[in-house]
What does this fold into?
Amino acid sequence: MFVLLHVRRRQHHRSRRLLGVDVLDRGIAEATISISSYRVESPGVEGVGLRTNQFRADNLDSGSFSRVAEEFLLASRISRWDREFAISVMDYFGDPMIETYGKLDQDTYVEGDVLDLPPSSVARMAVSEAIRQRRTRRYYTGDPLHLADIAALMRDTAGITGAGDVEKSNGDHVRYWYRAVPSGGGLYPVELQFVALNVRGLDRGVYRYAPRRDQLVRTGDAETADALVASVSTPEDDLNPEAAAGIFCLIGHPWRSMRKYGPRGLRFVLHESGAMAEHMHLVATSLGVGTADYSSFFDDDANDALDCDGLSRLVLHMVLVGVPSE
Ligand SMILES: Cc1cc2nc3c(=O)[nH]c(=O)nc-3n(C[C@H](O)[C@H](O)[C@H](O)COP(=O)(O)O)c2cc1C
It folds into this structure.
């Protein structure tokens, strides 16, 4: 029993390093041997301690491990005649929700320093050319970016780009604000934070982009930025975040969508973060700035750094930006 517990603890410790893909790690080899030697006599899959994702995929019919990701796919389906879904969505067309939409992310009061953004840098190429040229850039020179470049990336990813007036039952109108990316139900459940590491005109720290104000709100200092960088799990040879100008963090608020759409809303949150990342890549390419999607961060560390609880508010994705060295 003691040996089993010991092995489990070691397994947990090693799994935190697996994303570094240190396949020759002696510890993993030792753990594998130890676990295999405690295999139960049955040849079933439950007799194996260390389970890779390939092992799970190859033994889908065993029924002996959790399949939560697929449960989510099933739970987030929309079916014909689903009255609960229809009534929940209908609620968002009534007067109280029309008022709420009008106030979405209004940011009347903000905590933290508020900073103005300069005019955005101007794209140097057509969208079709940016699509052709876009490539993941994982290595950066360490040179700073201009705040005007960051402003362009923020506005073209999360900025307000239009408005429309919606009528309430009494004939009054409420103004809705539309943004650069499409959003399931127009709820905009993904917030944009920027971890500034090396940007001219911006102190090292963390900043939230406030769309309705088109301003930055400082939410963390240099120490917060360091904590976020430390959540990056990839070895430095594969990517050099310290030489990047900054890291965009896409923060999801699942219940903003799930309150209206149930589990389906979570799909919308993920779609939106993908759309935002793609806008960022194309705008960056058009400005000669390098970007890399980065999803191999340690979730608990990243959430802790940005004061997210990991459920009602969580780091969904990161995009590194910098002066590309390749
Ligand atoms: C959702 C997502 C997550 C990604 N995460 C990482 C990552 O953690 N580390 C990394 O080096 N590249 C990451 N990438 C970049 C891919 O490796 C890259 O897009 C792919 O190799 C294709 O290359 P290209 O972007 O240059 O066309 C990610 C891409 C996507 C779409």
